[in-house]
Amino acid sequence: DTAVSQTPKYLVTQMGNDKSIKCEQNLGHDTMYWYKQDSKKFLKIMFSYNNKELIINETVPNRFSPKSPDKAHLNLHINSLELGDSAVYFCASRHRATNTGELFFGEGSRLTVL
Amino acid sequence: AQSVTQLGSHVSVSEGALVLLRCNYSSSVPPYLFWYVQYPNQGLQLLLKYTTGATLVKGINGFEAEFKKSETSFHLTKPSAHMSDAAEYFCAVRMNAGNNRKLIWGLGTSLAVNP
After folding, report:
1. Model confidence over B37-49: pLDDT tens digits?
2. Most buried residue, A79, A114, B89, B102, by CB count within 10 Å?
3. Per-residue confidence at A59, pLDDT binned at 50, 70, 90?
4. Which of B7, B63, B12, B11 is nearest to B34 (CA)?
5. How far apart are CA A94 and CA A31, in angstroms?
6. What's the CA gap between A99 and B15, in Å, rounded?
7. What is the pLDDT of residues A78-114, one digit of tens each?
8. B17: region left, alpha or beta (phi > 0 left; psi from -120 to 50 alpha)
């Protein structure tokens, strides 16, 4: 069983469209994250949810809206896609109470905006 | 403020040679330290971590790292590189006290292993 699963793995779309990426973890973790990795492999945290509550909201355009229906799921909706949104988006999870705890990552969702 | 510096965005070694990937951090208190590896077209996975105790930490796939407080370093080593070690390696730190316990990432080091 995949611990952190993301769908879709690949997404190609036109500028201006709206798209969503879904993430699910079966590890029983209480905290989930969205990261963006650009073409230079730089990792930037976007959002973090703890038990469905938003706890980290970095400087991200309002076009990006995360939603956590329960602590095992964290989805990312992107409105009015722009060329600069092309990247790999990673979902990750961990137990927040364990400061030493590692992050478990999904395999990523590669978004290409044309 | 915390920061992480990985010296060398690209490192190339021959198969069988020593791997040394450098990581230095700045933090007002000893942080928790992590090395993650990202194989091509995959997510990141933990290689090893330092929290407390023994400063030499062993991880998966024969990697190890040593926490040196005096040098604020946490360099990653492997005695003998294998072709399968070719990947992107990320160093990360997290404060172990205070209100801001965000994970701070280095920019990554791409390791190439030549036959």
Report:
1. 999 999 999 999 9
2. B89
3. confident
4. B63
5. 5
6. 36
7. 999 999 999 999 999 998 777 667 899 999 999 999 9
8. beta
Which of B103, B83, B101, B85 shows the shortest CA–CA distance to B93? B103
Burial annotation B27-44 (CB, 10 A radius, 16+ → b, else e): beebbbbbbbbbeeeebb
Q: How far apart are CA A69 and CA B36, in angstroms?
A: 29
For A22, the token pair is: 């879904």
The A-side interface with B (CB below 8 A) comprises: 4, 40-43, 45, 56, 90, 92, 99-100, 102-103, 105-108
CB spacing of A43 vs B105 below 8 angstroms: yes
Identity of residue A48: S
CA A112 to each of CA A9, A19, A88: distance values in angstroms, whole numbers, following the listed order = 11, 11, 9
